[in-house]
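[agent] plan:
  1. take the single chain provided in the ticket
  2. run structure prediction with default settings
  3. attach C-alpha cells to the ticket
  4. add a short note for the reviewer (M.T.)
[agent] executing step 1
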Amino acid sequence: MSEFDSLMNKLLEQKPEISRKDIEDMIQKKKEKIGAGYLTDQGALFLIASDLGVSLSEPLKVEMGLKDLYVGAKEITLETRVMNVYPARQFSRKDGTQFLLRNMTVYDGDSRAKVKLWDEKANLPGIENLKPGDLVKIIKAYVKSDMKGNPIINVGSGSTVEPNNMQSKIPNLDAITDNVSNVKENQQNLVVSGILDGNIRTTEFTNFKGEPSKALQLRLKGNDGTIIRAVLWNKDENSVPKVVSSGAKARLIGVNTKMGQMGLELHGDEGTVLEIEGAKEIEPMAVRILSDTKSESGSRLLVATSQDKKLVNIVDASSITSDLHAGDVIELLPSKIYGNSVTIEQSSSVKKIDDQKIPTLSDVRTKIRDVKPSDGIYCIEAIILKAPQKREVQTKTGESILLSETFVEDDTGQIWLKGWRVQARLLEQFTQGEIISVTGVTAKPGLEGRTEMFLTAYSVVTKKN
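[agent] step 2 finished; step 3 output follows
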C-alpha cells in the first residue's frame, strides 16, 4: 500500500461520513485553488485533513521536489538550482525590533519557488556569491503561504542553504531559457533570451510612497521578429556592460509577463539578472560633429560620424563639448556606448584634434532610395514637395499629441518626413520648394508598409542656401 493510500484510509476512518470520491474531489479543488505545479495529491490531502480537523501523523517525506511542496510542511530538504538572489534588506517589527530578510528564487526540473532567508540566514557565508544555475541544497526548511496561497520556502533558525557540487538531473539555466517570442500572459519566474532592440535607458520617478525610484528599460526581439518591452524596477545602467553593440544577444533571468498599454511586457526587479553581450573597457574614438542641439532637460545632443561613416548619437549632460561646433573633429573617451548611442559624463575626456580622414556631413548623407527601416541614423538632403502640415493625433490611451509631416524628394526617390510632439516644431518654419538638410533621423515602416522617416531628439533641420 502506498503512503498516499495509507493516509487516505486513516482520514476515511476518522471521517466515515465522507466518501473517498468526496476527498478526491476536494484534492482536485485544493490543487486548482493553490495553482498548478505547487501541490501534490498527498500534500493536498494533508491540507484537507487539517481543514476537517483531522491530524495525519504518518511520517512525512522530508526530502522532496518543488512540485511536492505544500503549506505547513516542516524540516524539508530540497535539491534545487538558483535562479536569482536578492539583496538582504532590513525591516522593523511592530515592537520596533529589526530583522533581516533576503529572497531567492530556485528551480528544479518540475517547478520554481520563492525562498525567504530570515535574520542571520540572510547572510549565510557565500550566499551573495551564488550565481544563476548554481546547485544548492536547502536543509530543514519549512513552508508557509504567500498572500495568494502559494507555498514559500522559509529558511530560519535550524535551517540552512549549502552549495551542492554533486551531479544533478536538474536542468541547467540554458535548458530552461526560452526565446522571447514564446512568452505568454501571466507567466512567472521566466528565463528569456532575445536580441537587444534599440537603446537601453534608465528612468527616474517618484513611487507611490513618495520615494525616488528608478527603472531600467529595454526591448528584446525574438526569433519571429516579435519585439517585447522589458522594465526592470529598481535597477539602473550599472548592471549593463559599458560597451554594447547593436544586435547584441541578451538574457533576462527571473522576470514575469504583464499586459501593458502597448501589449505584453516583461517585468523584473532588483533580483532580476540581466546578461548582455558586451565589454567592460571602452576604447577612445575619433568622430566629426555633424550637428548639435539640446534636449528638454538641457543636455547637449550631438550627431557625429566616425572614419568608417558610422553615425552615432552623443548625449553630453556635463557640457564638456560646449566649446565645440558642427564640423569639429574630436577624440573622446565616453562613459558608455550602447549600439549607436554614446554617453559623455563628467569622467569622460574630450579633445579637439585635426584629422582630415574623418568624413564630412556631405560624405555621409544617404540617398532616399537607400533608406531602409532599421535602428540606424540617417542624414539626408532633399527638396520639400509638400508644405509641412501640423495636426493633433489621439493615441489609444486618449492622449492628444502633435504630428507634423512633409513629403520630400531627392534625385533618387521620395519619402514622408514626420515629427511627433516636440520634434513636430522642427518643420514649421519651412515651406514648399525649399531644400533642407536633415541630420539624426530614423526610418521605420509606415502606412501600407512603405518606409517613412522620423525626427528624433537629436535631429537638426536646416535650410540650404
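[agent] step 4 note for reviewer: Helices lie at 3-14, 20-34, 41-51, 361-364.
[agent] ticket updated
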